[in-house]
């Protein structure tokens, strides 16, 4: 979550005012997701909307810098430092095979049921039986392998 700006924080770099509106929209969506009623949902299910919004915001900043080249390196580094994007997730997106990764937790082997493997959402759709709904228990992803 982005830090609250105070008078002590360093001024944002040039170009921030162009994307500030979109980042504010993501902040509003995040607040709504955090305040949403989660009664009747599993504990992990209540966090899925928050993770999706965080992923979308990180992906927006990643594509703005790497794909569209719409922001400067200084602004990109500042956004990562201030917590607008998940730096670990962005670092994985730059590697081959992780271009569609939904969250870093899905590639960690220690949290999975089958020790030594990754999350079910990382399995290519061609290898999953027909009619089986694949859904990650951590983030709600339905498939983020590069082959999907």
TrEMBL record:
Record-given protein name: Maternal g10 transcript
Main location: nucleus
Gene Ontology annotations for the cellular component aspect, listed alphabetically: spliceosomal complex
Subcellular location: Nucleus
GO BP, sorted A to Z: mRNA splicing, via spliceosome
Cell cycle is among the record's keywords: no
Similarity remark: Belongs to the BUD31 (G10) family.
Pfam families in UniProt: BUD31
Keyword field contains Transcription: no
Keywords, in A-Z order: Nucleus
Species assigned in the record: Exidia glandulosa HHB12029
InterPro entries referenced in this protein's UniProt entry, alphabetically: BUD31, BUD31/G10-rel_CS
